[in-house]
Amino acid sequence: MDLTLWQYQFRIIMLGDSTVGKSSMLKRYTEDLFLETINQTVGVDFYVHFLEVEPGVRIKLQFWDTAGQERFRSVTRSYYRNSVGGLLVFDVANRASFEHVHEWYTEVCEHVKPHTVLFVLVGHKNDREEAGERVVQRAEAEKLAAQLGAPYVEASAKTGHNIREAFELLTRRVYQGLLNGEVQLREGWDGVKSSAPQTHQLRKPQSSVPEKPTDRCSC
After folding, report:
1. Residue 165 class from Cβ within 10 Å (0-12 exposed, 13-18 middle, 19+ buried)?
2. Residue 35 has pLDDT above 50, yes or no
3. DSSP 3-state helix, strand, coil percentages of the chain (rounded to 5)?
4. Which pLDDT belongs to residue 200?
5. Share of the chain above pLDDT 70, in %
6. Which contacts qualify for 136-139: CB closer than 8 Å, 24 or more apart?
7. Overall average pLDDT of the 190-201 stretch
8. Is 122 helix (H, G, I), strand (E, B) or coil?
9. What stretch of H or E contains 109?
10. Quick one: pLDDT at residue 3?
11. What is the DSSP string of 20-32?
12. How confident is the model at residue 113 (pLDDT cuts 50, 70, 90)?
């Protein structure tokens, strides 16, 4: 496989409190590995993965894994603006991490304007439910996701459950945003890059109905 061939590059940022498992999710998705103990992210780590969203359309995914600790926030904030997608991650056995999701969402929205960031909310470590450790119920997580205008997925890096689905859901959501104009290629913005903007044209759906204004956060 020629890793130099791709049509689009999407920059995706991992968001959430420290210890919710953002790095473990990326390790499972990009390398299919799970480590019981993983070094805490300091500042920002980078991962790269490739996904073919449809025949002939290959996406290079550049993931920014941000540290959840407050002392690194000034560093991680500098990466928000050049992101087109965000995985908002909380631990289903940690209510504080769930309560902080809206803060992460708001902070990104404040820093990325006038660009658009699309989100997926992930309830991570759902394997802990069997041990009776779950404190955030699916219904309240789905309610929050609806308020944020984001799909909701429950996953576990430990078992591998829904890890691939979470990342690919976000990737395909961004790609559909390109098709329908919700996300646009912009000069000087690295959230989305095209390797051949003159030769690879997006196949936007045709519609005779004018698009209505949206109150979605243009983040």
Report:
1. middle
2. yes
3. 30, 25, 45
4. 46
5. 78
6. 136/90, 136/92, 136/93, 136/94, 136/95, 136/98
7. 70
8. strand
9. helix 101-112
10. 54
11. SSHHHHHHHHHH-
12. confident
| Contacting residues for 79 by C-beta, under 8 A, at least 6 apart | 13, 44, 64, 66
Q: Which residues of 129-161 are buried (b: 16+ CB within 10 A; e: fewer)?
A: beeeebebeeeebeebbeebebbbbbbbbbeeb
**Domain 8-194 annotated CATH 2.60.40.10:** no
pTM value is 0.83
* Ramachandran category for residue 70: left, alpha or beta (phi over 0 → left; psi -120 to 50 → alpha): alpha
70: CB partners within 8 A, 6+ apart: none
In tens, the pLDDT along 128-160 reads 999 999 999 999 999 999 999 999 999 999 999
- Backbone angles phi and psi of 175, in degrees to 5: -65, -45
Nearest-Å Rg of the Cα atoms of the chain is: 17
* Burial readout 174-213 (b: 16 or more C-beta within 10 A, e: otherwise): bbebbeeebbeeeeebebbbbeeeeeeebeeeeeeeeeee
Residue ranges covered by each domain of the chain:
8-194
Model pLDDT, residue 135? 98
Q: Give the pLDDT confidence score for residue 2 in this predicted structure.
A: 57
DSSP state, 187?
A: T
